[in-house]
Design brief:
The protein is mainly β. It has two domains: 56 residues, no CATH class; 72 residues, SOR catalytic domain (Immunoglobulin-like), CATH 2.60.40. Helices cover 7% and strands 39% of the residues. Strands 8-7-10-11 form a four-stranded antiparallel beta sheet, with no helix packed on it. A three-stranded antiparallel beta sheet has the order 5-6-9, with no helix packed on it. The N and C termini lie far apart (53 Å).
Length: 145
């Protein structure tokens, strides 16, 4: 029955099958979820049930006091090249960086052994940089160029 309706089996059994309200697309409400099994990064801008690898994922909460971040910003062509110091080993690395502005999000997947750096378009200046560390969780940093 769940497959026929295109519904989540758990929600169907719990009797909580209801449509979401239309998404206004407010990026200030952006939420990130990371699957602990496969490492998929999923986002939403409203309340929803996100599932991956058969598990329900909870949205990540940014750390109340993120670790200090010394950003190095260089202008390259039409981009800002932003780098910082962080371990990038298989057991401890940044899984993603996301640059969020009022109407857009740029999600950059990072991998172990890679330099902890991103390039973002220099179209507009201010935004929020989210970093997800596999050991310390989600961090939020305001960027003001």
């Amino acid at each position: 029955m769940a497959a026929l309706l295109g519904a989540d089996l758990l929600k169907l059994l719990q009797g909580e099958l209801r449509a979401n309200r239309p998404d206004s697309g407010n990026m200030r409400r952006l939420r990130f979820s990371v699957c602990p099994v496969c490492g998929n990064v999923l986002t939403s801008t409203g309340d929803c049930g996100i599932f991956c690898c058969g598990r329900r994922l909870e949205p990540l909460s940014p750390a109340a006091e993120p670790e200090p971040l010394k950003l190095r910003v260089e202008e390259m062509d039409l981009d800002y090249y932003i780098s910082w110091d962080h371990p990038m080993r298989k057991e401890h690395f940044l899984r993603f960086a996301a640059y969020v502005q009022d109407d857009r999000v740029l999600l950059i997947r990072l991998y172990p052994e890679q330099e902890p750096a991103v390039r973002i378009p220099a179209t507009r200046r201010d935004g929020t940089l989210y970093l997800y560390c596999t050991s310390h969780g989600l961090q939020r940093h305001a960027l003001n160029f």
